[in-house]
Structures are given as structure tokens and as C-alpha cells.
Known about the structure:
Structural class: mainly alpha
Number of helices: 5
Strand order of the largest sheet: 1-3-2
Amino acid sequence: xxxxKPPAPAAVTGLPEFxxxxxxxxxxxxxxxxxxxxxxxxxxSALRLRTGVPVPGSSGTLAVASGGPPSAxxxxxxxxxxLVRLHRAAVHAVLDQAVTRLGERTSEGTSLLNxxxxxxxxxxxxxxxxxxxxLLALPSLTAAGLRRAHADLVRAGRTVLKLYGAHSLxxxxxxxxxxxxxxxxxxxxxxxxxxxxxxxxxx
Length: 203
């Protein structure tokens, strides 16, 4: 599998940026085309997928189309790998933002970051990000490994949204980005037989 440099966390700041990075994942996995999941669904930016319908929760930045033939196994594997890396970058970006916000807020004269429960949650998310990075670096990563990484990122994302606070779930907050990242993983990471145990993407 081709090693891909993950998106910089700072680049995943909102839905428009996420949609542009998602289109980049398509282009890297299938140049000039869009990758269709095994279930026949295609998700891309609304600018790229003009025949699709809006993805709920994406504020019109993403679109989905159904009914196409699934992409070739090698393209699906490459795209799944890039999706997990994009998801990780999104969670990392939200963690950075949450730590900054918590550091600026105080309660009873002390920074919220000094609270034991907060520090524990930050450590849990940071550990999940580190483990995912290590997993993605394996030369023989399997479909099961990618699904495990996705599940770990889902849990880490939900934890960091609690740290971020209620603003995370507003349209301007980071919640929608992590929501669509979860949705994309659920759509594309069920690769099935086109990815054998070798993880090399061969059919």
C-alpha cells in the first residue's frame, strides 16, 4: 500500500475544508473519478458530486449518490486508508481546539485543564490518536485494522466533543465534521472480500 502523509490537523477546521480534503482522497485513490462503496453509495463534496443529494448534517457541503457499481477493490482499499487518516486529522484538530478553549477558561480561580477528569479525558484522546497513527504505519494493515482504527476514532471523537462543550454541536462547532467522518467510515469501511488478509489491496 502507498504510504500517505495525513492531512495536517489545522487544515480540518470546518465542513468546507473537510469536503475539499475528502475530494482529495477520491482523487488520490481513483484519479479523475469518485470511489463508489460496496453498497453502491458515493459521498463527495457537493461541488464535485453535483447529481447527488445533500448529506444530512453536512450543511450542504457534502452530497451522496446511490446506485452505482462498486469501485475496484484496490481503489476501495486506498480510499478507506485515506478516510481513516482524514478522520484522525479531524479528531486531532478538535482536540487541539478543545485544549485551547479549556486553557482559556477558569473555575474557582484555576484553569479547567488542571482538573483531573479533564486531564484524563485529554490523555485518552491523545492515546487513541497515537495508537491510530502507529496502526496506520503498519506495512500490512488489514481491513480489520482499519475498522478498529475507525472505531477508536469514533470513541475518541465523542470524548473530545464532551471536552469542547455544548458549542461543539452547533453548526459552527466541530461536531458536524466528526459526525460526517463517522458516517463516511460506516459507508466505506465494509470492504469485504476485495481485501484479503494480506492487506496489499489485491483482489
